[in-house]
Each structure stands twice: as structure tokens, then as C-alpha cells.
Design brief:
heterodimer; A: mainly alpha; elongated; B: alpha/beta; eight-stranded mixed sheet; two-stranded antiparallel sheet; globular
């Protein structure tokens, strides 16, 4: 807690100082200074750099899991602050990307054919990635690189590869957490521990699985093929979004250029952002309502689901020799429980109907209540209570 | 473009950073924001589902009790988001006796629950409990969104237990051109999804809903930075965010059936949906119907709700358009003045 408080105090103080420095610098700038834009750009870059490192660092104490390290009293507030950070990140990146274009428009030197020359294209790609959360799948690429290396190792020595099998899966885990959006931390940690335990205990690894070395290897190779297919589709989706972003940005550019000619331009960046946002949203909603997009999205969800299943299955192979309850076994229990509950419900209904029939008989009519329905006991309970979420 | 002078650029960045720091400070000091706090008590419970009755200080002026059936997606707290923006409290103030079925939070052991068990099981049980408690042979069902679809199906199967049917922002036709969810569902391999996950995670659904308006989240968080020093506005915002994030998982089998038979095959409107061995025929709905849709609804477009009135067998039926979006209908300022009082008036007229 102390460490976190110091971290935040430092961030707060340095941010305040940064802001004061900018204000001071802004006062010193005059229209006659030739390099004023250079200076401004440098300061902006410093700001972005400082903001990015802060954004990166701030995730560590929160996500690391050290209890009590979170400065927020409630996770909802933590989430809200992260959303503020991410939105500010997008907002300021947009500002940076469009600034040269808007400046050219302001100076009447803008030519529409120069639009993409004025936009930092790597910055544009990063921006779209951030907007749609593609930056969160970076671990996938890392994992694929590592997996390719592992394949080479397997070819050389299956025994040696076996020793590394656990960590290899471990490296893929953040990817699964990010994609499935289940509780990534606990899921990842649990699997990591299990994989590491399995690796330590199984010597040699291949010999101790029920299915033996070749089937295990085939299964792993199959999973890698699935990942390859998934990545291919994901790239297609990303490309689709880049293309539509390009189209949307060109529409924004045209709208702004037309407005500039009429002398009707935004007076602050927020106004520009709102215009940009409305045009982009309309463009994306149109894209999302196409069969092409819907089919690709559907394929990605399917591939992701199949990968999850394959992964679960492989983990169960790891864990089979151990005295742990596997998910497939739990599912069987749930299924039987569900069937039993269904039978109980049917029996309860039968009893209830029988009671009603008895009450409806003429000899019992005198005792009849206005509506003959079985009333369960009233039960006081705290409203809105979450149960084993 | 005044904002492009170097001074203004620096000021803009400085202002944004200052707001962010203030936001951090404000959020650090806040604990959980309360939603759905209108007093209520549980009167029945089965598995994770419970029937709640909203506590009244004065006797209800309408005899017929009302069961509110919310969607399985997200939580019913949206209808009671805060004391001065509460659809529930407004209905209560208009003299209605309100019950609500709280579906709870399904856990992995609930993955095999079907739509039949939700509708002919829990919902029917809840209706029976209310009938027994109040002595009324039939009650009013008020269904919202997916809960509206459930209410419609229930009313078709058990018309004798439903005196009035009120539906709000309810999908009936699942294949209309502007329905993005429908478009996506046509290409969804729901078997693969449910087989892999068991229950479908709420976070996954929320991610999908966020894509329907892909820039909304960024825009609203940029906007709220301007209100970090306005506690009331910030709290209102946070309540809504808390509600959005509170997204229960969906029981796998029920989700599978809902997507396949309704979104993909559109069986309800075709009259081919079967539940508990019976065909659901909308023409069997003969009780008075009040169908309310939202003009700017991006989740359930008006065209998805409107056809209900032409398909039911009711002679007394009303179709009402309400300005606003899917959620705005319940939390918007106009809603506070018009929606609940309007529904209450319609129900009072039929409370004979």
C-alpha cells in the first residue's frame, strides 16, 4: 500500500509540475517565434511519452494482484479511471494525428491529395488498434513466435521439447485470458501453476500422458494450426477496420475542408472530436451491418471457442494423473444434477396438481380458498444480493 | 481554428491532464455507488431465482399486481438507477403493487437450464406465487427487452393467468434490416460458443453490445472528464457505468435456444416455436396489450417490436412510441414524467 501511494503521489506531483511547466512555456511563446511549433511539438511528445509510461506503469500495481495495492476503494472506480485513461489516450492521439492536417487547413495550404502525407501512418494504425482493442492481442503474436521456435525444438529432440511444453502453454495463457475475457488473472495463474506443476512432476513428460507421445504432439500441432487460422482471420478483420477507418478519415477530412472554405470551422478540439466521432461511428456501424463483417466476426468467435475447447482438453490430459476434478467431470455432475432437479420439479408440480384436484372435488369445495395455488414460504432476503458470481 | 495556436494546444493538453488528475482524486475517494435501492423484500426463492416485492408505504390503488420480467442480460437495477430517476418508484407512486423476478447470477452448474425451464418453470412459479398471495386469478405481466419476449411467450402459453400484458422495448421479429444483433447472430456458431464456455460470459456479451456503438465509450469518458468536479453528475455517470458492468453470465442452453430458435430461425413470429411440448401461438394472446417501443433503440429497433400488435389475438391493444434509446426510455428525464404515469393510467383503466 505504501509503495502504491508513493507511486501515485509521484505521478500526481510530476503531472502537476508538467502542467505548470506547460502553462509557463505557453505564456512565453509568442507569435513571432519561428520555432514555436517545434517547441510545442516537443512538449506534446514529452506529454505523450510521460502519459504512455504512466498508463503502462499504472496497470502494474492494479493488475499484479498484490492485495491492498489498489488505491481505489471499489473496483468500479478503478475501472472508471482506466476508462478515463484509455479515452484520454485515444483523444490525445487523435489530436496529435490530425494537428498537421488542421494546421494546413488553417493556413489555407491544405491539398486533399496530401492528406495521408500529413498523417503519421504508423500512428494511425496504432490508433485504430487501440480504438478496437487490438493492442490487447499482442501476446498472441509473441506466443506464435515462441511456438514456432518450439516446433523446431521438437523436431530436434522430443524429450527436450517435452520439458518446455509447460512454459510454452504458459506463454499462451494471457492470450486466452484476453480473448475469453473470463477472469484473466485467476484463470491464468491457475493454469500457470497447474502447467508448471505438471512439468515438474512429469519426467519424462511425454511418457506419462495416457495417450502417449505422438497423439500429444499431434494435439499440440493441431492447436497451433488453430492459432494460425485464428491469427489469419484476425488479420483480415483488422485490415477491414483499417480500410474503413481510412474511408471514414477521408470523409472527416472532406467535411473539414469544406467547412474551412466556408469559414465555418470548429473552435475547439472537442468540437472536432465530436464531428470525427459521428462520422466514424456511422461508417463502422455500416460496416458491422454487412454480411462480410458478420461472417468474419462469426468465424473468429468460432475459432476462439474451438481453441478454448482444445486447450481445455489438452489441460485435462496434463492433469489426468492427478487427484483433481476436471472440468469435463464437473460438467457431467452438473448435467446429472440438472436432470435430477428437473425430475423433482416435475414431481412437485404433480403433487401440486393432485392437491388442487382434491380441493376441487365437490366434497372439499367448502374448504376451498379463492385461488388454489401452493404458496412457498416467504423468505426475507437482501435485495440485489450477488450469488457466487 | 483558434484551438490550433501553440498556446491553445498546450492549454488543451494541460487542461486534459488536470482533469484526469482530478478524476483520479475524485474516484479514489468514492466507494461503491448504490443502484436499485428502492425497498423490496424477497417473497419466494428457488435455486438462484427470487421473487421480490417492492415495499409500499400506502396500499396500492390498483387491485391487479404487476410482475416485472427483466431480461437475463444485465440486471434489473437499471429501472431503479437512482432515487430521482426510477421507473420503479414512479410506478409505485402511481399506485401499483410491484413484483420483480430476479434471475440472479448463473454459475457453471446452471449451464443446462433451458428457455422452457425459465419460462414454464421459474416464471410460472413466480406468477403462481403472486396469484396465491394476492388472491387474484390473473396478474399483469410487464416484460422488458428479452424479459418482454419471455412474457409474450408465457402469455401465449398461459393466457388464463395474465390479465394484462405490457411489453417494453421487446424483440418479436428477430430478422429486421437495422437489427445489428440479428445480423451478427445469423453468422454465429452458437453451438461452438456454448460448448466451449458452458455459460456465456457476461463480459463477452458486453463487448458485443459495446461494438454496436463503437465510439460511445471513448466519447462518454472524454465528456465526463469535464464533470469530475461535479459530484452529482459524476455519481449519475458512475451509477450507469456500474449497471453496464454488472453483467451476469447467460445459462448456456437457454442462450443456445434463444439465439438459434429466435434470432436465427425467427420462430416466434413464424408460429413455429415450441416450448414444453407446446407450440407458442401469438394469436393465443387475448388479454389487453400495451406495447411500448423506443424510437432510437439501437438494440431492439422499432421494427422488431411493432409487429406484435398485429400478431396477437387481443382486441384491446395499444402501440406506443417513446422518444429515446433502449435505456433512455427508463432513465431519461422525459420518461420520469411520462412513461410510468402513462403505463399506470392504462392499467388503472383496465383494473376492473
Amino acid at each position: 500500500m505504501e509503495q502504491t501511494a508513493t507511486f501515485f503521489d509521484t505521478w500526481y506531483n510530476s503531472t502537476t509540475k508538467l502542467v505548470n511547466d506547460w502553462r509557463e512555456a505557453a505564456e512565453k511563446l509568442s507569435g513571432e517565434q519561428k520555432n514555436m511549433w517545434d517547441e510545442t511539438e516537443k512538449m506534446q511528445q514529452n506529454w505523450m511519452h510521460s502519459f504512455q509510461s504512466m498508463l503502462q506503469n499504472m496497470h502494474l500495481p492494479f493488475m499484479g494482484g498484490a492485495s491492498g495495492a489498489n488505491p481505489f476503494a471499489h473496483t468500479g472506480m478503478q475501472d472508471a479511471f482506466f476508462s478515463m485513461l484509455k479515452s484520454t489516450d485515444v483523444y490525445t492521439r487523435l489530436f496529435q494525428l490530425w494537428q498537421p492536417v488542421l494546421q494546413a487547413m488553417q493556413n489555407n495550404s491544405f491539398q486533399s491529395q496530401d492528406f495521408w502525407k500529413l498523417i503519421d501512418q504508423q500512428g494511425f494504425k496504432t490508433f485504430v488498434d487501440k480504438l478496437f482493442g487490438f493492442d490487447a492481442v499482442t501476446p498472441v503474436r509473441t506466443f506464435m513466435d515462441q511456438s514456432t521456435q518450439m516446433m523446431k525444438l521438437w523436431m530436434n529432440s522430443a524429450t527436450e521439447a517435452g520439458k518446455n511444453f509447460g512454459p510454452m502453454f504458459g506463454n499462451g495463457l494471457p492470450f486466452f485470458g484476453a480473448l475469453t475475457q473470463l477472469n484473466p488473472q485467476s484463470l491464468t495463474q491457475w493454469y500457470m501453476q497447474m502447467a508448471q506443476t505438471a512439468q515438474r512432476s512429469l519426467a519424462p513428460f511425454w511418457g506419462s500422458t495416457n495417450t502417449g507421445q505422438m497423439p500429444s504432439m499431434q494435439s499440440a500441432v493441431g492447436m497451433m494450426e488453430q492459432w494460425g487460422n485464428y491469427m489469419t482471420k484476425l488479420n483480415q478483420l483488422q485490415t477491414m477496420l483499417y480500410k474503413h477507418s481510412v474511408s471514414a478519415w477521408e470523409k472527416v477530412m472532406q467535411t473539414m475542408a469544406d467547412r474551412a472554405k466556408e469559414g465555418n470551422v470548429p473552435t475547439d478540439f472537442n468540437q472536432f472530436y465530436n464531428e470525427w466521432s459521428a462520422i466514424n461511428e456511422a461508417e463502422f456501424v455500416t460496416l458491422f451491418n454487412t454480411d462480410e463483417y458478420a461472417a468474419l466476426q462469426g468465424e473468429l468467435i468460432k475459432l476462439n471457442s474451438e481453441m478454448n475447447q482444445a486447450y481445455e482438453k489438452q489441460m485435462e490430459v496434463f492433469l489426468q494423473p492427478y487427484p483433481v476434478v476436471l472440468r469435463s467431470q464437473l460438467d457431467e455432475v452438473y448435467k446429472v444434477n440438472h436432470e435430477l432437479r428437473g425430475r423433482i420439479n416435475s414431481l412437485e408440480k404433480l403433487v401440486s396438481e393432485f392437491q388442487n384436484t382434491q380441493l376441487n372435488k365437490p366434497e372439499n369445495q367448502a374448504q376451498q380458498t379463492p385461488v388454489e395455488i401452493k404458496t412457498p414460504n416467504a423468505e426475507e432476503n437482501k435485495p440485489g444480493r450477488k450469488e457466487n458470481k | 481554428m483558434d484551438f490550433l495556436s501553440p498556446q491553445r494546444v498546450l492549454e488543451e493538453f494541460a487542461a486534459t491532464t488536470t482533469k484526469l488528475a482530478k478524476g483520479f482524486d475524485a474516484l479514489k475517494q468514492l466507494d461503491e455507488v448504490a443502484v436499485g435501492v428502492a425497498p423490496k423484500q424477497a417473497v419466494w426463492k428457488k435455486d438462484k431465482v427470487q421473487l421480490l416485492q417492492y415495499v409500499r408505504e400506502t396500499p396500492a390503488t390498483a387491485r391487479t399486481p404487476i410482475l416485472i420480467v427483466y431480461a437475463l442480460v444485465n440486471r434489473h437495477d437499471m429501472m431503479d438507477i437512482q432515487a430521482d430517476r426510477s421507473f420503479i418508484r414512479n410506478l409505485q407512486a402511481a399506485g401499483l403493487d410491484l413484483y420483480l423476478i430476479d434471475w440472479g447470477y448463473p454459475t457453471p452448474e446452471d449451464r443446462y437450464f433451458t428457455m422452457d425451464e425459465y419460462i414454464n418453470g421459474y416464471l410460472d412459479d413466480a406468477v403462481n406465487v403472486i396469484r396465491a398471495r394476492t388472491g387474484q386469478p390473473a396478474i399483469t405481466l410487464m416484460g422488458i427487452c428479452q424479459g418482454g419476449t419471455f412474457s409474450v411467450i408465457y402469455s401465449a402459453l398461459h393466457p388464463q393467468k395474465v390479465k394484462n400484458l405490457v411489453t417494453l422495448v421487446t424483440p418479436i421479429d428477430f430478422a429486421t434490416p437495422r437489427d445489428l444483433l440479428s445480423k451478427w447472430a445469423q453468422h454465429l456458431d452458437v453451438d461452438a460458443l456454448v460448448d466451449a464456455h458452458g455459460n456465456v460470459p457476461g463480459e463477452l456479451l458486453n463487448a458485443g453490445f459495446a461494438l454496436l456503438k463503437p465510439l460511445l465509450k471513448t466519447t462518454k469518458y472524454v465528456s465526463i472528464l469535464n464533470a469530475v468536479d461535479k459530484p452529482e453528475q459524476l455519481l449519475n455517470f458512475l451509477r450507469m457505468e456500474q449497471w453496464i458492468a454488472d453483467s451476469p453470465s447467460q445459462a448456456g442452453e437457454c442462450f443456445r435456444q434463444f439465439v438459434k430458435e429466435l434470432y436465427q430461425q425467427n420462430r416466434l413470429i413464424k408460429g413455429t416455436l415450441e416450448l414444453g411440448g407446446r407450440t407458442v401461438r401469438l394469436a393465443d394472446i387475448t388479454m389487453p396489450l400495451l406495447n411500448i417501443y423506443a424510437q432510437e433503440d439501437h438494440l431492439v429497433p422499432p421494427e422488431a417490436s411493432i409487429p406484435l400488435n398485429d400478431l396477437v389475438g387481443s382486441l384491446d391493444k395499444s402501440l406506443t412510441r417513446f422518444a429515446g434509446g433502449h435505456i433512455g426510455v427508463f432513465v431519461g428525464s422525459r420518461s420520469q414524467k411520462e412513461l410510468a404515469p402513462g403505463i399506470a393510467h392504462w392499467l388503472h383503466e383496465r383494473d376492473t
